[in-house]
Amino acid sequence: RDLGALAAYATAAGRQPAALDRAALEAFIRQRLTRGLSPRSVARSIAAIRGFYKFLLLDRHIESSPADDLRPPRGWPALPKFLSIEQVDALISQPDVSAPRGLRDRAMIELLYATGMRVSELISVRMADLHLAEHYVTCIGKGNKERLIPIGDQASRWIERYQREARPAILKGRTSARLFVSVRGKGLSRVGFWKILKAHGRRADLPSTLSPHVLRHSFATHLLENGADLRAIQTMLGHADLSTTQIYTHVLAARLRTIYDRFHPRA
What we know:
By secondary structure, this protein is mostly helical. It contains 12 helices and 3 strands; from the N terminus they run H-H-H-H-H-H-E-E-E-H-H-H-H-H-H. It has helices at residues 2-12, 22-34, 39-58, 85-92, 100-115, 119-123, 153-171, 190-203, 212-225, 230-237, 242-245, 247-263, and strands at residues 130-131, 136-140, 146-150. The chain has a 3-stranded antiparallel beta sheet with strand order 1-2-3. A hairpin with a 4-residue loop joins strand 1 and strand 2. Helix 5 (100-115) runs antiparallel to helix 7, helix 5 (100-115) packs across helix 9 (212-225) and helix 9 packs across helix 12 (247-263). The two termini are 41 Å apart. The model has no long low-confidence stretch (mean pLDDT 90).
């Protein structure tokens, strides 16, 4: 596709692709940018172009490559997607808590948003990892590292209700070390929870980009917006490096800029 675009560009200029020089290639790259391609897509185009001219050079169709030091535009980190507090509330209210599975789903979503755990961490929580009287959960994260994450009152109440009313009904006399179980009496899988979350997201009319990681981003963003310390967020998320957590400051800056542009009379 990228080389097809280059060929079309060369044809429009009345030239063969093999006859394009460095200036023409730079003009082609600028054209791609002005037409709305992302830096990542343009970087892919440049990689294809460099490979094409390398082939022409090796096959002796040209004497030197005009694309040797053609460089991609500098990209920027993609900001993590997150939900507003109102969207989180809409999502959490979707499960039918009068049914055991609905109560389980509500408890899972509450715990995910309350802790910012990764989905693999969430589905691996054992009964023994919960310390609801002290309002924290023990989590085993990447690299088999253990961390303690606080749990709020509301999430604790829903987990307690799930344990009391729904979990025994789902297990039907079977036993499992896992906190959250499927109708087969086994621990839920990543894909299983992803499907559950997407179904509730559709009913709440949330963006199709909803995923467990979007809830993790929402947890961190909302904490930061309400004055939480970045180091504390790093600890709760289980990030080894603070620079990983600092992307949420970019989210906050972007939101502040939007608010400023909307409300400042001289923006």
